[in-house]
Amino acid sequence: MLVTGKEILAHADEHGYAVGAFNINNMEIIQAIAKAAEDLQAPVILQASQGAIKYAGIDYVAALGKLVAERTAVPIALHLDHGTDFEEIIKCIRYGFSSVMIDASKYPLEENIARTKDIVRIAHSVGVSVEAELGKIGGTEDQVHVSDAEVTYTDPEEARIFVEETGIDSLAIAVGTAHGIYKGEPKVDLDRIAEIDAAVSVPLVLHGSSGVPYDTLRNAVARGIRKINIDTDIRATFARTVGAFTKEHPEEIDPRKILGPAREAMSETVKEKIQVFGSNGKAWK
Ligand code: 13P
User: Fold this and answer.
1) Distance (Å) from CA 248 to ligand 1 centroid
2) Residue whose CA is closest, atom 9 of ligand 1?
3) pLDDT, average across residues 87-115
4) Does residue 142 register a pLDDT over 80?
5) Which of 36, 51, 77, 282 is the most exposed place for a label (fewest CB within 10 A)?
6) What's the CA-to-centroid distance between 254 and ligand 1, angstroms?
7) Torsions phi, psi of 49, nearest 5?
8) In which band, very low, low, confident or very high, does the pLDDT at 141 lie, cut at 50, 70 and 90?
9) Which candidate, 276, 229, 214, places its Cα nearest to that of 40?
């Protein structure tokens, strides 16, 4: 069942867990996530980046996302990840996404507020939820790149002002995680999560969560993280499984035989995350 981002995160907030937000790039990934969510009765967020939409086509992404939400007996939100382009964000709303992210984090605070407010006004007028980012999260997520030198942690007082002025439904924060593969072990500023959570009224979002030790993720949830983004770990499972299969069966040319095991393996990766986030068994009717 398709629900809004606000609804799914309000439930997580009320029950003290985090919803897994998994990036989608093709049909197999979407099915893998839906199967994991249904098997574990976990609410889940399917999120597409502008890059994924460019690759698959917005009509395909929206149709697949809505179909899987209809067919799967758990709450599912269809979300735009890192929307940096005004037209792209509006297009997602028009195509039936139930949640969008406006990422204007590269601009100074006032401009971030102004750009975010524009999207909130439009999205809320048609019942779509809005996530925005304050601070600068490191690494590369498709078209968004932030170098180590540009990383800026979220300031709790600025977060309070940002949330009050924009009217957003959830806030992505920079606390030491980064998109992509980590070189060393990430150091997450858990105290900062608690400080931001105390300063704002909306659920908090952790990006760059692949490769973060599970204890750290559990501690982040205990301090107020309610949405955890995972892309890289699913990609890695996909690449590893397809690579191993084609190495073992170099004569195989049937895409179903090559991609099928990857779909199963990705589902297992998603299940592992869901259990760490505490969202298993939290689906409601
Ligand atoms: P990872 O690259 O760590 O999976 O993060 C994904 C993400 O935050 C998407 O917005």
Assistant:
1) 30
2) 229
3) 98
4) no
5) 51
6) 30
7) -85, 170
8) confident
9) 276
Q: How confident is the model at residue 222 (pLDDT cuts 50, 70, 90)?
A: very high
CB of 81 shorter than 6 A to ligand 1 = yes
Mean pLDDT calculated for residue range 216-244 = 98
Residue nearest to atom 3 of ligand 1 (CA): 208
What's the gap in Å between 243 CA and the centre of ligand 1? 22
Residue 123, pLDDT score: 98
Which atom number of ligand 1 is nearest to the Cα of residue 82? 10
- Evaluated on CA atoms 255, 261, 266, 267, the torsion sign reads positive
Check: pTM over 0.85? Answer yes or no: yes
Contact between 190 and 216 under an 8 Å Cβ cutoff? The reply is: yes
Of 120 and 285, more confident? 120
Q: Residues with Cβ < 8 Å from 217, sequence gap 6 or more? A: 18, 206, 209, 225, 228, 276, 277
Q: What is the pLDDT of residues 262-277, one digit of tens each?
A: 999 999 999 999 999 9
Q: What is the pLDDT of residue 234?
A: 98
Residue 216 has pLDDT above 90, yes or no: yes
